[in-house]
Amino acid sequence: MITLRRSFILALAIIGFFGIFGAIGLRIAKEKLYSSPNALIFIDSPDGAFRAAVASYVGGGGFSPYCFNRLFVVDRQTPAGRVADEDNLVAEGECGSFGSIEGGLSDPSDVSWREARTLIAKIFLHRATTGLETFRIRRIAATGHIRVEFEVR
């Protein structure tokens, strides 16, 4: 009886071990997948000092597909590898919410500059691929110099 009990405890310990490290591994893999966008389009401010970047993230395959767009605002000197940093994020939503599923903009005016320090992003609730569940926004870019306005359509 003791051998059966020890076998059961050992089996639970092994399952727990692989469960914990499997979850950590999935978290790391997810962060690496989402760290670089599939497509990135830049829209320069009228004075050329800042750039808005629309990034599309698409992938995952048949079992766990994902598709979302992110909008970043950076100054002109930001290296390309740092554009998609979380600090530069001003909006994030399902694919089609302000970019197209193909990785670009459905219409160039979806994200545009009103003036040198004001960015306008149109949010299309009906275009979101899976129904818009969450949409994160930040009205002031991390640079502190850019105001972001959103128009919901």
Description:
There is one protein chain. Helices cover 22% and strands 33% of the residues. The strands form two sheets. It has a five-stranded antiparallel sheet, with no helix packed on it. Strands 5-6-8 form a three-stranded mixed sheet, with no helix packed on it. It has two domains: 1-35; 37-152, no CATH class. The protein has one helix spanning 2-35, and strands spanning 39-44, 50-59, 66-75, 89-94, 111-115, 118-123, 136-137, 147-152. The model has no long low-confidence stretch (mean pLDDT 78). The chain is elongated and about 75 Å long. The protein is of the alpha+beta class and 153 residues long. It has one helix and eight strands.
How much strand content do the residues show? 25-35%
End-to-end separation:
67 Å
Shape: elongated
Tell me the number of structural domains: 2
Strand order of the largest sheet: 1-2-3-4-7
Count of discrete alpha- or pi-helical segments spanning 4 or more residues: 1
Helix content: 10-25%
